[in-house]
């Protein structure tokens, strides 16, 4: 069962605010943080010019949030070097996105921003 349109609206609103806060110190032509919503999954992406053709953009996944409807929780994942997603532990499950956004923003373990 898919996430409701109302929930999608709330998630996208929160994601836009997160991206706005993260993009503040960076010139957008060099780097910006964006999001993508696919079904019940929210991705945060770093968007940069391609190294050999600055007119093209490349997207690097930073974080993934999956909504588990039957449990009514969000799960947070981070990308490993082999491009596989690893669930963030121990605090990577929450009923609300904001605490998970805080984990990504602060990145105390260096999983998301390097």
Q: Would you write up a description of this structure?
A:
25% of the residues lie in helices and 39% in strands. It is α+β, with helices and mostly antiparallel strands and 114 residues long. The chain has one domain. Strands 1, 2, 3, 4, 5 and 6 form a 6-stranded antiparallel beta sheet that branches. Strand 2 and strand 3 (53-68) form a beta hairpin. It is globular. The model has no long low-confidence stretch (mean pLDDT 92).
Topology record:
Elements: H1 5-23, E1 32-38, E2 41-50, E3 53-68, E4 73-79, E5 85-87, E6 93-94, H2 97-106
Antiparallel strand pairs: 1-2, 2-3, 3-4, 4-5, 4-6
Helix content: 25-40%
The geometry reads as: globular
Question: How would a crystallographer describe the biggest sheet?
Answer: 6 strands, antiparallel
Residue windows where pLDDT falls under 50 for at least 5 positions = none
Quote the average pLDDT.
92
Tally of separate helices: 2
Count of DSSP strands: 6
Quaternary state of the chains: single chain
Number of folding domains?
Answer: 1
> What structural class do helix, strand and pairing data support?
alpha+beta
Cα distance spanning the termini: 35 Å
Per DSSP, what share of the residues sits in E-state strands of 2 or more residues?
35-45%
H/E element sequence: HEEEEEEH
Rounded to an integer in angstroms, the radius of gyration calculated over CA atoms is 14 Å
